[in-house]
Amino acid sequence: MKTKAGLLPLYIALYDEAAPQMRPKIESFYAEIADRLEAQGVEIVRNPVCCVEDQFKKAVARFEAENVDAIITLHLAYSPSLESEKVLASTKLPIVVLDTTPDYLFDHTIDPDAINYNHGIHGVQDMCCLLVKNGKDFNIFAGHYEKSDVIARVAKAVKSISAAKSMKGMRVGKVGKEFKGMGDFKVSPEKLKKDFGIEVVEYDMKKGAELYNSVTADEIEKEFKADCLIATNVENISRDNYDATEKVALAVRKWLEKEKIDAFTINFQDAGSCDGFKTMPFSEASKAMARGIGYAGEGDTLTAAVVGALIKAFPDTTFAEMFCPDWENNNIFFSHMGEYNLKVAAGKPHMIIKDFPYAPGFDPTCIMGHFKAGKVCFVNLAPRKAGYTFIICEGETVSLPEKIGGFENSVSGWFKPGKTVSEFLEGYSFAGGTHHGAIVYGADAKTLALFGKTAGFDCVIL
Fold this sequence. Notes:
Elements: E1 3-10, H1 13-18, H2 23-39, E2 42-45, H3 53-65, E3 70-75, H4 85-90, E4 95-99, H5 115-118, H6 120-133, E5 139-142, H7 150-165, E6 171-175, H8 189-196, E7 199-202, H9 205-214, H10 217-230, H11 239-258, E8 263-266, H12 282-290, E9 294-297, H13 301-313, E10 317-326, E11 331-336, E12 350-353, E13 365-370, E14 374-383, E15 388-397, E16 411-417, H14 421-430, E17 437-441, H15 445-455, E18 458-461
Parallel strand pairs: 1-2, 1-3, 3-4, 4-5, 6-7, 6-8, 8-9, 13-16, 15-18
Antiparallel strand pairs: 10-11, 10-17, 11-16, 12-13, 14-15, 14-17, 15-16
């Protein structure tokens, strides 16, 4: 995903008059911050230093014309807030405040002249006070640019904003019908179109059969060789099962590519209903997420869209469901039938032939594994009578042994929320959370709340 931000340098005209020798050093600091942000994968639109209102107007107008995802403010020293107040309060662009200074140490041993370069924090305070007064939303991240993770956090924030914007006009594919009687995540295509501009693209079974028949033996063989690199036990799988499964999977992939699908959902109950859908292509759902395409099960177009947006900013995002509480260890067991982002696998996953009695289709091959350990957030988008609630809980996926007993041949992981399981489950259902969601590696609650706010959701952090 291409993420772009305007880096707005704030300064005071008085210093150009009283201490013009400061300019080269403060401009060098601005350039270093821009370089560091770009190293985090954010395209930076650079701008000359701004001191007075006209300069701020020109800078923000330029950022708007360049269609940046957000404005990152950087105080190079104190800057009187009334010079920037009106333009920052009136722009529709999100504002991310980077509160940092050149020097890490500032104690009695430092040269007093360093005050001139390190007192931008009270310019931040002046500006943020007026942003609050004007009702202008912003996010702020403070820390030393070199000795903390503040640059990475700012970059994640801008990526999160960009990801939320990507939900607008998204194309979400749907294979099969919705799971009958499952109502918590149900949102009509018409409402998705109205609320987000999302286009739900139905998988035409007749055309799917044509795509299925177009898959060649060479394409299947190429996929087999690729799967041997990403999973173990592939060579031991019956080629009849493998080839038959991958013919369905590659037909779905061709459809995703042809229709320019951003996210998709499959209802496993319809597997075996036609030539283009002879079995459940679990492996393609997993590989598609690893390629950056969103996914959710059972006809859940809403969660698929959320996963499709988040995965653009946080590639280690996977569709997941809570299944069982482990009260003793304060964990929750997460799983699904066979779909998860292969990027979140602990070690190298393995391929099996999955027993599949839930639909008329034959037993498919499936790539199994468990979630790698790490800091994560579990998120859910819950539709309400009016609007949506975006629920976020920080926690971690726990470290597991390589062999996990009877769970070896399943998609599995245990999530430890940042509170007791009882508190989490009570708060989650009280907020109206659905039974589908996503596990996001590499993000925190503050960053994901910015995703939710940008998308127009009410946010609940548990």
